[in-house]
Amino acid sequence: MNDTIRGEVAQTKTASKKRRLIILGGVVAFLALEVYIGTKGEFDMSSVGQPFDRLTHIGGWQIPLGGFAWRTAAMSLLVSLLLCWWAAAATRRMSEVPGRLQSTAEMFVQAFLDLCTDTLGSKGRAYTPFIATIFLFVWVSNLLGIVPGMQEPTRNLNTTLGLGVICFIIAHVSSVRTKGVKSYVLDYFEPLIVVKGVAVPNVVMFPLNFVGEMSKVVSHSFRLFGNIMGGAIIIMVVSNLTRYVGLPILLNAFFGLFVGTVQAFVFAMLALTYIAVLQPQEE
Amino acid sequence: MTWGGILQLIGAAVGMGLGAVGSALAAGHAAGSACEAIARQPWATGQIRKTMLIGQGVSSTPSIFALVVALLVITTDATGTTLVQGFGYLGAGLCIGLATLGGGFGSGFANATACEGVGRHPRRIGGVIRMMIVGQAVTQSASIFALLVAFMLMYTEGGGGAVRAVALLASGVCMGAGGIGPGLGAGLAAGEAVRGASRYSGCENVVLRTMLIGQAVAQSTAIYSLVIALLLIYYI
Prior knowledge:
The structure holds 2 protein chains of 2 kinds.
Chain A lengths: L1 H39 L16 E2 L2 E2 L7 H22 L8 H21 L3 H21 L12 H23 L1 H6 L6 E3 L2 E3 L4 H38 L4 H31 L6
Antiparallel strand pairs in A: 1-2, 3-4
Chain B lengths: L2 H38 L4 H15 L1 H15 L7 H38 L4 H15 L1 H14 L7 H38 L4 H15 L1 H16 L1
Helix pairs in contact in B: 1-2, 1-3, 1-4, 2-4, 2-5, 3-4, 3-6, 4-5, 4-6, 4-7, 5-7, 5-8, 6-7, 6-9, 7-8, 7-9
């Protein structure tokens, strides 16, 4: 009895030692790669002044709407593939006693289910997949910048603006579906004025409410874009000054891990809140 | 070096110098509140410190915007800058610098009351942090409009005479000064909403909804400034 326990303890000890070695090796390889990339390529500061990939010419054709950003598109596809792989791997062999991947996925889904039902009540379950997907996509995109040679798709304004427009459309369409068109349109004329005991729509308030709704999209997407691009530019400039020794790793930890996670959560929470505000109030 | 180049560098300095003020004050405000809360409930130190750090991370967003604008202005070649472009850069610096005063300091209110509230009820940390983050994020909307205007001013075309130069500067001042009040006002709303939600349970949804509506009204003045700033850039 004692021997078997001792054997198990010894086994877990060697296992944890092995894991520690793997993590240590990974960190050393990461640092070596970062320093290698830093010393190898001459740093091009002129690209800092141009925040977006603007125009691409494909076979003599100049595509409007700012062209096609190959790098951003490739990186977004990579993020999507990573998430698909994670979801498939977590749900492939499901069991009563969950494995490591499955229990991570279960914890994640449960956390977002609680979040959505807290905010939206009984309707929260229907919106959970959307909010969780938005969070995962933005989060993994933000973390991708830590890997040397990779670029966050959220650094490009077109990605964040696209996500913002998706959230906007979903919020408004679900509002029309639950409230009905009349009540939805009347909301733009709030607060109603009362004339001789009858509530009349206030025309003066329409431009204000309308611009207010539109400005939500702008602030929602520019917030994410500004934070991620700010972090990327700061890391770029400091890396150029210190030649990738020491400091950029701390900056990567702050801007990549901390700001990236917080901003992904902010983005998902605001999407959820914008949906909730447009729903009819439950008494 | 041209006069335009001189104005460009002054713009970067003004933007970052003013932009650092608000967020720093907010971080200090939250840290003071966290110290007081820890003194009252020493056993909740971990939760209070976590709340403080997350909030300070979010409230440093406006000064990150100012840093972005300043770095972009500095790294653009200043030798061939025309006078009109120079005024554009100065306007961009003033715009982001002034607007982040309000947005930065305003997002400290929610952080301070969240630290206090977590000190009172450490178990409600999840809901309090959620409310705090949403409140702070909406508080910073005016700073984000300023970032938008600053980008437009930085990448504007260099032609035109003295009238256009002054219009660009005026546009920056308009959005910058117009961003101070909405940032502070929306921050006050967020602060009191977090205080209420941390003290009384079961009212989070109504409080959140009312806070967002109130903040939207407080920010309508920032939208007026945005409209005037855009008109100054594109119609003069």
